[in-house]
């Protein structure tokens, strides 16, 4: 019998922390857009005892994602899928954020939803950004959740000029991730599999450390200092939660979005309520 397969898309700190747990006892198919980063991480994981196959992939390209899913299925039963690829609003334009973070996630959910094995599970790494702001209308959220992938970026409100800057695109894309996961739970369930979303907050990664020394450093520090946890999170904090959702102890959880932010959003909402009460 072929060994089970875990798929990790994205070689960032959070994805790798989750992948290290999900790939124990499984073949790991590791994918990333950056070939140099892909091979470097593969060598590191092989040195830690993992059996790793690599494939360069661009999640914003449907054919690339379909090819990755086909490769995974050819290796064996696909029982773990971690989608952690994405770009930040400081790295990319509005259009690029929409193509990678929003459309790319839809492609991954669709293509791996056709190959995931019965009993398998998946995680999409979104962001607490999807919980910020004042939300979107019911019509917009339904469209984000259920519009066919091929038509998704044709929605009028997803035109770059309608979305606005890359920060607004990021917030919208991360909200869409959670909505697409909830919708995909039905089709994944038809195959006897589960899929969930996690929304990390300020996690100690290289990108976050850059942000903490950049022009928005004061805002990030304020969010941390006013949160109940009072600290940045670690990739291990996120991996602990992801392990529950991916593993047998999470067998009754699917279509959910777990906020892992140390209470940042809770503190923001409390501040908003206090301000509204004193207005």
Describe the structure.
- This protein has a single domain (5-203, 234-263), classed as Rossmann fold (3-Layer(aba) Sandwich), CATH 3.40.50.720.
- It has 279 residues and is α/β, with parallel strands linked by helices.
- Helix 1 (13-22) links the parallel strand 1 (5-9) and strand 2.
- Helix 3 packs parallel to helix 4.
- It is built from 11 helices and 7 strands.
- It is globular, with a radius of gyration of 18 Å.
- The relative contact order is 0.14.
- Helix content is 50%, strand content 15%.
- A 7-stranded parallel sheet has the order 3-2-1-4-5-6-7, sandwiched between helices.
- Bin the helical content: 40-55%
Tell the overall outline. Answer: globular
Q: Give the overall pLDDT as a whole number.
A: 95
Going by CATH, the homologous superfamily would be NAD(P)-binding Rossmann-like Domain
Return residue spans where pLDDT drops below 50 for at least 5 consecutive residues.
none
Taking strands numbered 1, 2, ... along the chain, how are they ordered across the largest sheet?
3-2-1-4-5-6-7
| SS summary, helix count | 11
Q: Helix/strand/pairing class, anyone?
A: alpha/beta
What is the number of E strands?
7
Radius of gyration: 18 Å
Order of helices and strands: EHEHEHEHEHHHEHHHEH
Q: Please indicate the count of domains.
A: 1
The main β sheet shows up as:
7 strands, parallel
Q: What name does the CATH topology carry?
A: Rossmann fold
